[in-house]
Automatic annotation (TrEMBL):
Name listed for the protein in its UniProt record: BAG domain-containing protein
Domain of life: Eukaryota
Residue span of region Disordered: 81-148
Biased composition (Polar residues): 81-109, 124-146
Organism from which the protein derives: Bodo saltans
Amino acid sequence: MTFHSPQSTESEILTLKTTRGERIDIVVPPNATVEQAIATLVQQHQYHPTTKLMAGREILSPKRHVNEFADGSLLIVGAATTASRNKSPQPSSKIRSTFHHGSSAQSPQHLGEHSHSSSPSHPTGRTSQQESPTSASTPQRSTTPQPEKMTLTGIIPAMNKAITINLFGHATVADLLTAAISIDARLAGCRLAFRGKFVNVPTDKPLHSLGIREGDSVHLATGAFRDINLLSLYRIEEDLHRIQGQMEKQLSELERKALYEELMRVLFRTDDLQELEGELRLRRKELVKTITAMQDALKPPTVHA
């Protein structure tokens, strides 16, 4: 690994990248370990102590040496606080950031499950989307507060489990995926799906622009579940399991009718999967039978004259 040549022989400059394509240069000791690099991120850039470094799809052990990898190839997986993002540059500091800023006055953000706020309070409790023009003598730095948080449920069909993902209200697709990977490294390379469709947009797209809101569930597809047909079958099975749980309760006539209509909508979804073959085709046919049986159980008994 070739580092940038520093002025001091007692340290080296290591270039790391973020999930947004930005780069950060940090000063580390010669032959530094991953643990030492993360400690620098925590101390100088206010990253959370749970931050990890990733090479390809592998979360690196703290004892690995960063010079085993090409400079600029290691990815930061974790969250930085607002204090880090709003921190004014210190000329005498050995740490220097090389973020690529766009036209917006707002600095890049690293959001994830363990983000913490240290920003000033604001009367509205929200971050303004556009900075107001300021005079030339006023430093252009963000004084906006931490925005409201958003909690999502990440369903992982391949692992048959769900995780809780805590983000800020203006989080992006990249922030969601980074937070998920920090919870379970096996999610590296997963595909994000929402409402039965894969999210095929740039990773800097805000979640709210996709209709993803507080309390929503998303699917994190890995392995075989990267096939949208298999994921669709899985979602149908999820819905049937939920409806079956409701059917075990004492239901009013109105509630039975509502569940019957919901099952009809689920049945319509199976019509989109008629081109399946092999095992998936058989699985779909079984689901159709299950839906029909559940509908029959919800019908009121026939009254004979």
